[in-house]
Amino acid sequence: MKIIGVTGGVGSGKSKILDYLEEEYGAVIYKADEVAKRLQQPGQFVYREMLEHFGIEILKTDGELDRAKIADIVFKEEAQLFYLNQLIHPQVKEYLMRAIEIEGDRGTDIFVIEAALLLEDRYDEICDELWYIYTEESVRRERLKSSRGYTDDKISEMIKNQRSEEEFRSNCTRTIDNSGMFASTISQIRNALETKQDDILE
Q1: What is the pLDDT of residues 107-136, one digit of tens each?
Q2: Three-state SS string across the chain, please?
Q3: Which of 20, 61, 64, 119 is the most buried (most CB within 10 A)?
C-alpha cells in the first residue's frame, strides 16, 4: 500500500485532486481536520480532555463543543493554543496510523492523508511520499473569491500565515502543479503513481 501525504496552500485545489484519486484509483482519503473534528465529538477522549481543561463554558446547549468560544480563548492566549495543539494533533496522527493498519489489512492500494500541517506534524514519518499541490497565487485568489466569497484582504492574511512555496517544495517529495487545465494535473498524478519510490530517490 502506498501512503501519500497531500498538502498545499489555501485555494490550491487539493479537494479536486483528492476526489480524482478516490474516483479513478480507489484511494482511501482521510482529511486531518475532519479526523480532528471527529475526535472532538461527545464521548471521545479529546472532547473529555478539552472539557476538563476549559470547563463547561465551551459547550453549546446540545452538549457539542462551541468552536467559536474555543477559538476566542485559544487565539487570545498562546499557552492555550499550544495546549490544544499538543492535545489534538498527536491524537489525529495516532488515529490515522490505526486507519493505515486497517486499510493495509483490507488490501487497499493507495491511502491518502490531506493535512495543512503535514510538514509541521512530521507526517513524513508515516507517509511514503509527500505531495505539495502548487497553484499560482493569482489562480488561488480567483478560486477563493468565486468559491468562498473571500475578500483580497482575507486571502492575503491566510496566505501570509501559511508556509512559503519554497518551504513546501523543499520539504515535499513531489510538486504537483495545479495552476492550469486539470488534464495537466491528471498527467502529473499518473506519472507520480507510476514512478517507483526508488526512482524518486535516485
Answers
A1: 999 999 999 899 999 999 999 999 999 999
A2: CEEEEEECCCCCCHHHHHHHHHHHHCCEEEEHHHHHHHHCCCCCHHHHHHHHHHCHHHECCCCCECHHHHHHHHCCCHHHHHHHHHHHHHHHHHHHHHHHHHHHHHCCCEEEEECCCCCCCCHHHCCCEEEEEECCHHHHHHHHHHHHCCCHHHHHHHHHCCCCHHHHHHHCCEEEECCCCHHHHHHHHHHHHHCCHHHHHC
A3: 119
CATH of 1-27+110-193, one of 3.90.1150.10, 3.40.50.300, 3.40.190.10, 3.20.20.370: 3.40.50.300
CATH 3.40.50.300, applies to 34-108: yes
Q: What is the pLDDT of residues 80-109, one digit of tens each?
A: 999 999 999 999 999 999 999 999 999 999
